User: Fold this.
Amino acid sequence: MMALLSQRSFVFTLATILIPLCFALNADTYSQRIMTLSGIYAIAAVGYHLVFGRLGALSLAQGCFFGLGAYSASLMGVHFGLSFFVCLLFAIGFTALIAALIAIPVLRLGSHYFALATLGIAQLTLLVAINWTKVTGGANGTYGVPQPDLFGKTLSSSTEILLLVWFILALAVGLTFWITRKPFNYQLTLLRDLPEIAASSGIDIGRWRLKLFLLSAVFGATAGALQAYTIGVVSPATLEFQIMVSILAMTVIGGKNHPTGAIIGAILLTHLPEWFRFLETNYLIAYGAALLITIIIIPNGIVGIFNNFIINRVHHNLKSLLEDGKKIISYPTGLSLKIKNVSKRYGGITALKNFSMTLDSGQIVGLVGSNGSGKSTLINIITGLQRHDTGTIKLDDQFIEDAASYKRSEKGIARTFQTSLHSYDLNVFEAVLACSRNNLGIEEREQKTHRILQESALISRAGVMTNQLSAAEARKLNLCMALVTEPKILLLDEPAAGLSSAEQNFLSNQVRLLAQSGLSILIVDHSMDFLLPLADRLICLNEGSIVAQGLPEEVLTNSKALESYFGMPKS
Amino acid sequence: MLETGIQLFINGISLGCAYALITLGFVLVINAIGAVNFAQGDLVMAGGFLSVVFAEFIIANNPHPITGVGLFILPLVLIGMACFGLLFSMVTYTPLKSCPPATVFISTIAAGLIIQHGINAGFGPEPQIGPALISSGTLAIGTLTLSKQQIAIIVSASFLILCVGFLMNKTQLGRQLRAAAQDPEVAETIGVNGAQCVALTFSIAIALAGAAGLLLSNQFFITTSDGGLFMLKAYIAVTLGGWGRLDGAVIAAIAIGLFEVIVATLVSYILAEALLFVALLLILLFRPSGLFAEAIQRRT
Assistant:
């Protein structure tokens, strides 16, 4: 709790709940009704921000969850006379179940198909609600939904209902903060902006997506149930696209990356029809205009304006941790990587053909070959970002070729990426922290992050946003993100490309030290000046097959290697 | 029996042709900017209302009672909506061109809301009936009687589809549009003005939506809340036909129209709708990257 209170963002959120609530408590019944509606939509929007803002997934199912919650709770209340609390729990359970069923096929879809699939499900649900007249009451809906009751007492005054709704909102926000607490918030940003790095840094993307999708469904259902109980009727209107669009608009206008944004957006937009009364039932024009203006002028919403104030960037309070000289990073030694007969084809093109190699502890192996010879494909296959067609990959005596990417990272395989990867919403420290091992406490994770940045001479840039780094710094950061997972096997994809010779020297020293401490390292690079003095062994690839391997000087004099890679004519 | 079957088939094809126009515009924008234009359905509806207004104006200013002014209005609607398309792209796309595609998705949702409820504020929620394309009547071929109206819809939609096909495949302008869609940066380096290409694509796409609105507005009436379903059908057609493929999208859209008419006539319209969504979800379940190969790499 104290830790939460020390976060500016939490205090800010608390204020956006308490201040409007205080005003509402002293207001007239009509204003209280509108604030109740604000609270209800805020719950749904906080749920939606988890999927849309945090995961970056364009879901159009939040309105559907809202309607499912409204229907399941109120039909239980009307037909079985159960208490509000029981109905609410039923609605949450039922909606979560549906969401879980939807999640299996839908969560793996690419963004456009995801949007369409969630929209299709929402439309189907609407059709069911309209046409299953016997149960739902059809197009007219079901009237006579009871007022909410708590501990046997019916909440009839608008103040009581207002308090109930805003209390539940506070719970939802608290749960959101807990789930997305440090360092998970950084992991979420990483998996949204750079899913490949996240997966190869031990972050289980599938689990996060499922978790937040289900949570959004739970919040949506809660909001729907509260709405039906507040207005006393449930009708297909709760499932219509307007609700979805309203929740979307609230989340975007308030600020999609923060729960506070959802609350601010909900309060603003539920009051908007009051301010634009001349539009009458066409108040959605105002929603549309507000949404359009927001996304053009302030894409991160209202909260985005205060971002620097709300979000404490973490590196500042760590100065004291530095100077103890203790070795806190350990690279467990003694693991080897054995790749046997791995093949991979893309359509008609052979990327790898019966590739085999062994990487022993403490060894540095260089992999050379012209562009398209299969080097990056190999690294992608070892880390699990791509599936191979045949062959085995063994880490010591464990076969890992079927394991998910994040599992391979947990077992000790780390990599860097060839392309410079920029995340937009993390600073250097946070990006490395996000990749640190999940089984450690937060303090230990911060210490390790700090030490790694120090060893890589990047600590002075700890507070810089990742998209402001130079190309060389971005490569360093990429290496730090790999090292902080405390790997046993390290795969470097063109680490020296674009580095000056001084920077290359720094990197080779670092790599040599890592190998001495027991790491097995595979380096793909084109720079022979960098690779030759460093590598214990060199492998030359051409069109997916090994043409030469052995000591660097042997490979350099091998005629096949000379021909295929170094471009020299046959002598 | 055979006659009913053929009549049903013609009905389905004519609805499908109108869907094909919507879908063609939808997919052109997807290819040009890598994002979905969520307002495409509302623009169809807007085109329908524009036709209603044009028709009323013409009929009110003509001393002789006339019917079937649709074919005369079609070019006016195309031009009007194409101009509106330029404005539309200036508002919803130009300020956001460096943002991720999801942003444009949202700006078009917003624009759709404004269009739908703006027209609703002007005309109200009651269905409006648009002009017939030609004066009504039937065409007798042997024992077969066909509605001239349907034939006119099929002919004019096919003509527009062929025009777009010709423009995209056979003209220098089309080659430029496709180049700009495929790789805007490289296209810029060889002298293609990317911004102009996107604006032009929007304007073609929205003109097509408007034409579809005119074609649909007589037989099916037009209501301000119709947009969502039009958009959804175009979206489904693009998924079925292979993301980004013009030919696939047109064929899928015609198939959807045909399917809808046949199921709706034999059983019920609701079943047709429901089956369409179920089919979509099943396809996405078993083929997460769409039914056919994607023509372009997704950029998201």
User: Anything to note?
Assistant: Chain A touches chain B at residues 56, 58, 105-106, 108-113, 115-117, 119-121, 123-124, 127, 131, 241, 245, 248-249, 252, 279-285, 287-289, 291-292, 295-296, 299 (CB under 8 Å). Chain A has a mean pLDDT of 87.
